[in-house]
From TrEMBL:
Gene3D superfamilies: P-loop containing nucleotide triphosphate hydrolases (3.40.50.300). It comes from Rhodovulum iodosum. This is Chromosome partitioning protein. Pfam families: MipZ. It comes from the Bacteria.
Length: 269
């Protein structure tokens, strides 16, 4: 059975597609067979990232490790069982097809609540939630009192993860390993970073996730997307001398891959 990684966050702009591409490509570079799905059927940022990578390789005549991207299959409404949701069928067919010969399946979810996203979360062996390092995005996980920082209750997204965990338990599946990434960390605002860190650590014990290091805010990520490249590809495409920022970013990716604790993965990037 393939290990299913779901990248989910119901707010846009947290870097889901960047995280998805770097994790999928890192696994592919290690020799793992990786299948990927993009459930944002309108924007398809992750799918376009993979397309950009394929186009770059064709244009430049280079070979780069490539995850296997597939679209959700079309399903005729008449083929559905009574009461069956068409999106459930499309997602289950795509996952069943990929599971036959893939070590990992990575699913990138849209930045909104959809039926596809809800079902994908119930399939997750590992759930990665990138989170901008601010209390605006902290609200994705829990409602809190801005005066004293007390947690008032779980967010709608956290409740969805809880429901996904319940469904997996009822089906006799292993629990979801939920990893929250502190993403787009800035070099300044040390007081805010400290408060965010404390709040996340306290919340993690209450609703059951692990906190892992994500990526700092760097210009390089905006430059990589149009060419479909990742931090690990820079030397392969002729960048002989990496600057300090690029080296630091590659180390952040190594730290992330270690923190994910994926089965059968030995991190040597």
């Amino acid at each position: 059975m393939a290990h299913i990684i779901v990248v989910g966050n119901e707010k846009g702009g947290a870097g889901k597609s960047t995280v998805s591409m770097h994790v999928a490509t890192a696994l592919a570079r290690m020799g793992h067979e990786v299948g990927v799905l993009d459930l944002d059927l309108r924007q398809k940022s992750f799918g376009r990232y993979v397309d950009n990578r394929r186009a770059f390789c064709d244009r430049e005549g280079v070979h780069l490790a490539m995850p296997h991207y597939v679209e959700l299959p079309d399903v005729d409404q008449s083929d559905l069982e009574p009461g069956e949701n068409i999106y459930d069928r499309r997602l289950s067919m795509a996952v069943a097809d990929l599971e036959q010969d893939r070590d990992f399946i990575l699913i990138d979810c849209p930045g909104s609540h959809t039926r596809l996203s809800q079902v994908a979360h119930s399939l997750a062996d590992t759930l990665i939630t990138p989170l901008n390092d601010s209390f605006i995005d902290f609200d994705l996980l829990a409602r809190h009192d801005p005066a004293d920082g007390k947690i008032l209750g779980p967010s709608i997204y956290s409740e969805m993860v809880w429901n996904a965990r319940q469904l997996r338990a009822q089906a006799g599946l292993p629990p979801i390993d939920w990893v929250v990434l502190r993403n787009r960390l800035g070099a300044q605002q040390m007081h805010n970073k400290k408060k965010m860190g404390e709040a996340l650590e306290n919340l993690s014990k209450r609703i059951g996730f692990r906190v892992a290091p994500g990526f700092s805010e760097r210009v390089i990520f905006r430059e990589l997307f149009p060419r479909g490249l990742t931090l690990l590809d820079l030397r392969d495409v002729g960048v002989a001398h990496l600057n300090i920022s690029n080296i630091a970013a590659r180390q952040e990716l190594r730290d992330l891959m270690v923190a994910l604790r994926l089965p059968g993965v030995s991190v040597e990037l």
